[in-house]
Amino acid sequence: MLGENSAKEQLISAIEKFIALSAVRLSDDVMARLAQMREREDTPLQKAVYDSYFENLQMARNLNRPCCQDTGLLQFYIKAGSAFPYLHITAEVLTQAVRRATESVPLRPNAVNYFDEKNTGDNTGERTPWLYWDIIPDSQEMEITLYFSGAGCSLPGQAKVFKPSDGIEAIIPFVFDAVTGPGVNACPPLLVGIGLGHNIENAAVLSKKALLRPLGKEHPHPKGAQLEKRITEGLNSLGMGAQGLRGNQAVMGVHIESSARHTATIACAVNVSCYMLRRGVMRINSDLSFELPTYHGASL
Ligand code: SF4
Fold first, then answer.
1. CB of 277 shorter than 6 A to ligand 1
2. 184 C-alpha vs ligand 1 centroid, how far in Å?
3. What is the average pLDDT across 261-285?
4. Is residue 227 within 6 Å of ligand 1 at its C-beta?
5. Same domain, residue pair 262 and 281
6. Distance from C-alpha of 77 to C-alpha of 146, rounded to nearest angstrom
7. Domain total for the chain?
8. In the prediction, which pLDDT does 3 show?
9. Would the CB of 190 count as within 6 Å of ligand 1?
10. Does one domain contain both 32 and 104?
């Protein structure tokens, strides 16, 4: 096992490069879905919008620059093995990696602490980067999902707690209003994350976790999967396409994550991602070797 200082330096450097990769390149599932969606659009206007998206993404790779100017605030969803030997330094490593990546990539400094109203300049600040932990018992590995939370796709976020007498159908107009109102400005086609829980905060966390799920993977319950399909089809029949212009597909998909609810509540949160769904996964082993399952052929 490496000494703590060497391990810390090795991890910071690797995660700094992983942040750079995820800022520049979309993960394989998103690229494949956007390519399919371009084929399904049938107007010159929509084809032109998708062509500009792909040209932008290719230029970002050629020039090694972020694919959107709004690199957002960084959120790390961590599945931490309880026996991962560097668990105790992980929070510090991630914060340092964000500082360095802000300089080296570069990322746009976006973090403003609420009551100082001053940009910290390095994308760190109060509870920032945002860290969300799941502890995996007896595992020696750590899996990090990095999400770039831009402003355009954070603004449409909504949450509401319904009465059970409203029924689960009540969430449908709520979701449609979020997508067709502020969602239009969030650079469609969107991925829509819906969290169904027992109160407002667990629904909100689940709605973000829904955006982290790989495209093409359905809700495990058949009724959940059916609701995802129904809402996707409904949103894609609105006549809205890429950039909110006339087209056939407003959304890349709808993902629902759920928990048990209180008998007397139906809590629903909606979170969307723009077409620049920048989320990548890095799996780190106990010897600090790693894999990048969301980026075929990539190295750091
Ligand atoms: S909504 Fe997405 S693609 Fe549009 S400006 Fe914001 S981060 Fe960039």
1. no
2. 11
3. 97
4. no
5. no
6. 6
7. 2
8. 85
9. no
10. yes
